[in-house]
Design a protein that fits this description.
SH3 type barrels, single chain, Nuclear Transport Factor 2, Chain: A, alpha+beta, 5-stranded mixed β-sheet, globular
Length: 245
């Protein structure tokens, strides 16, 4: 069963809140209501890997206690753009950048900024898999927790299957190769052709280095946004939501 679609048949979060114990703090009532939203979701395991390529998204987290419900609550909050529900899933000291930014209030501001553009970033993040560090830690995207033989500051993940590597920055240029969910290195480029980026890729079968151009919308920085969650007092909470280093 698709967890996201199953949530569409459940009661709205606000309706569940009315049934919660009013003596609990508001943040705890929100979190409990979010968990109740997914209590009936099928716990069927997702496939370990759903696409071709060495760094294709896969979900290692479903076997962890409470992780399926947490992921489903996270998905529901993002799908419905419910800031209250998302903030309730975050730790009070959630880390938001490397300059001291942290906390639920700042997370709420981030969600509201730029007409809610950050929601789209979170939506994309959820499609990139989940890595289990141990029974109390998970990382999204999955690839961020892996050892990838590319400089993370220059590296990017090709987000798709059979993505063309062109000989020139144009969609009608000849194809040098097709790449599926693999890592590439960004290279300096004087052409500045909009929509394309110059990269280097190593063929896995021959270790030959190939340089060419890939559509920018098929590349994701290796140090783009990632979400770290930890299990505290039997509840999963977002402890970091950061980009860069």
């Amino acid at each position: 069963m698709n967890i996201t679609r199953a949530l569409g048949a459940t009661l709205p979060l606000l309706a569940l809140l009315s049934a919660c114990d009013r003596s609990d703090p508001p943040s705890e009532r929100l979190e409990r209501a979010a968990e109740e939203l997914v209590s009936d979701v099928d716990s069927e395991q997702l496939p370990a890997q759903q696409a071709d390529g060495p760094w294709a998204p896969r979900n290692e987290c479903n076997a962890l206690p409470g992780a399926i419900d947490f992921q489903a609550s996270l998905q529901a909050a993002i799908d419905t753009r419910d800031a209250d529900a998302l903030v309730a899933l975050a730790a009070e000291d959630v880390k938001l950048d490397f300059g001291g930014g942290s906390g639920r209030a700042q997370l709420r501001e981030k969600l509201a900024a730029d007409d809610g553009a950050f929601w789209k970033t979170l939506e994309q993040l959820l499609n990139l898999g989940c890595a289990a560090g141990d029974e109390t830690s998970i990382t999204l995207p999955w690839y961020f927790a892996q050892t990838i033989p590319v400089d993370p500051y220059m590296g990017a993940i090709v987000t798709g299957e059979d993505v063309p590597l062109y000989s020139a920055p144009a969609a009608d240029a000849s194809e040098l190769a097709t790449i599926s969910w693999d890592a590439v290195e960004r290279l300096p480029d004087d052409t500045q052709r909009e929509g394309f980026e110059r990269v280097a890729w190593t063929r896995p079968e021959s270790e030959e280095r190939v340089e060419g151009y890939i559509a920018k919308d098929k590349l994701r920085s290796m140090i783009d946004y990632r979400l770290i969650a930890n299990r505290r007092n039997d509840r999963w909470r977002i402890t970091a939501l950061v980009a860069g280093d």
